[in-house]
User: Fold this.
Amino acid sequence: MDFPAGISSAHVRQVFQGAADLTERRLDLKGVCATAFFLDGLTAGKDIAQVLLRPASECLSGSAEEMYRQCLTGTIWAAVAKEVQDLPTLCSLLVNGFAVLVFDSLGRAVAFEMKTGEKRIPAPPAVEHTVKGAKDSFTETVRTNTSLLRRHLRSPFLRLTEFPVGSKSRTNVAVVWLEGVTPPALVSALTRRLKGLTVESFVTPAAVEEAVTGSRCTAFPLLRSTERTDRFAQAILGGQVGLLVDGLPVGYLMPVGLWDFLTSPEDEDTDFVSASLIRVLRYAALLLSLLLPALYAALAAFHQEMIPTKLLQAIIESKQQVPFPTLFEVLGLLIAFELLQEAGVHLPQSLGQAVSIIGGLVVGTAAVEAKLISPAALIVVSVAGVCGYVIPGRELQSAVRAWRFVLTICAALAGLFGVTAGLIALLLHLGSIKSFGRGYLRPFDRATTGGVILRRRLKTQAERADS
Assistant:
């Protein structure tokens, strides 16, 4: 839609035609006519009456030009007053919580900040839980999120650049970085990519991730999202650049590597020995979740001689009356596991947990008793699924589940040779991925992650002086 030329009350009504929340108030300011516009719900009516309408009626005097200048020099008691010279700027300020006073005789307007205080207050993280960590998380309001970040990083060198994205949604985004720590080229690359977008809307996580990372043929995430303000602040201190989007209760960080999705906020809240042991266990769980179904399918179908005799006898006895080959068993159980997981996600929380737990127990037990699957296959897939939940990053969990299917099919086609070929393909694929110019498998140094697998000890200033 094209905006009419010039500023007038009629033009504002034309742009917002049919908008029930647009409210206007005509004012007769000692012979000078002016019109106040604001959007109900984005502005506070009480503040408009006390801060704008009353001072305008009592304090403004003189000609229209003189009243216009008085509005900009403090006669109106608003904290922020902006001079508006064109209609697109006026409309943008209206939808961002400003009240606008239009002087038709001058063809100009003044905007006053009157944002309402109605917003969701910061709540404890719903997904990224910690025992001893901070209990505040991002909300859907970008200004609230920047204030939370300022409370964690009280540095004058914290930089915030804000601009709208989306030709129709006009979503406010904020690029966040720390001056002197974050590489300027990284900030410029992200800002240039966001300003060069031609998308219509920028209101969903998928739209943000695909627009920022571009078209990619990979299941692995190229940027990290977090709901925790302390984790976001720690990443900014480590030299990453952040992105906050108005309307989304998460913050995005880039560039990222595989190691970033295997770290948990709990690692920084416990001693370095316990955190290091948990990280080793987490990497082992990643390998089990990725390889266990494929290895079972390969050994049971092609390499029975590699299985210990007693274990092989138990597997053979459990499969004697099962009518399906091992491949169909494993793939069928993996698909059933995904279906149960999706059912638990999309149902209400209390009902979803019951469906996931009861469905898994009932279906699995009934299938074993009916001799449709073997107990060994059920145990293997269950262990692989549980190990997948140990991975902190949900985005990485999705990629691991996808490659678990690929490696299982490779194992069914060529045994361990197929698993080896699949692993080589996976490593080559990971080696070819880059996140904002940084290799996906590049180990980070101590300044950015504090260690890759083992969390390094954080020495105090006194300890560093003694050493």
Residues 344 and 354 are 8 Å apart (CA to CA).
